[in-house]
């Protein structure tokens, strides 16, 4: 099923069922799940290590399959963490997007990649931190 045909709730339930059927709740603590997300993110980065920007935009079929699997692992662990902590992801994500909209006003940041602190204090007069925006 496609993204358009699958709800976040359905994905969360699929992950919860998978974990429950294996009696893995005992291992799926917030600490372990947060570390698992970081580990899988590192495995995703390995697929792009040493590639040029252009190569990273056009992976071959085998590379794309590996990227899909690692990205899926990250999302599965994120959904499992939301389940373990009873976090309503839709609410949390909408709140975070509203915060990002305030931190990165489109009229000031369009086409730029500075960290939000660069734009504090009335715009581009702020001191750049060197960190790119998300």
Task: Explain what this protein looks like in three dimensions.
With 134 residues, this protein is mainly α. It contains 6 helices and no strands. Helices cover 60% and strands 0% of the residues. Helix 1 packs across helix 4 and helix 2 runs antiparallel to helix 4. The two termini are 29 Å apart.
What does this entry show, briefly?
By secondary structure, the chain is mainly alpha-helical. It is built from six helices and no strands. It has helices at 8-21, 30-46, 53-57, 61-85, 89-103, 106-109.
How widely separated are the two ends? 29 Å
Number of helices: 6
Number of strands: 0
Structural class: mainly alpha
Q: Could you tell me the radius of gyration in angstroms?
A: 18 Å
Shape: globular
Work out the strand percent: under 5%
Helix content range of the residues, please? 55-70%
């Amino acid at each position: 099923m496609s993204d358009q045909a699958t709800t976040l709730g359905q994905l969360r339930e699929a992950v919860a069922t998978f974990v429950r059927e294996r009696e893995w709740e005992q291992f799926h603590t917030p600490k372990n799940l947060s570390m698992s997300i970081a580990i899988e993110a590192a495995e995703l980065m390995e697929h792009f290590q040493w590639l040029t920007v252009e190569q990273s935009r056009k992976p071959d079929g085998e590379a794309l399959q590996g990227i899909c699997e690692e990205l899926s692992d990250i999302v599965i662990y994120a959904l499992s963490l939301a389940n373990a902590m009873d976090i309503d992801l839709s609410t949390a994500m909408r709140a975070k997007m509203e915060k990002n909209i305030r931190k990165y006003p489109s009229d000031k940041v369009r086409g730029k990649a500075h960290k939000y602190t660069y734009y504090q204090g009335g715009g581009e007069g702020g001191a750049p931190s060197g960190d790119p925006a998300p």
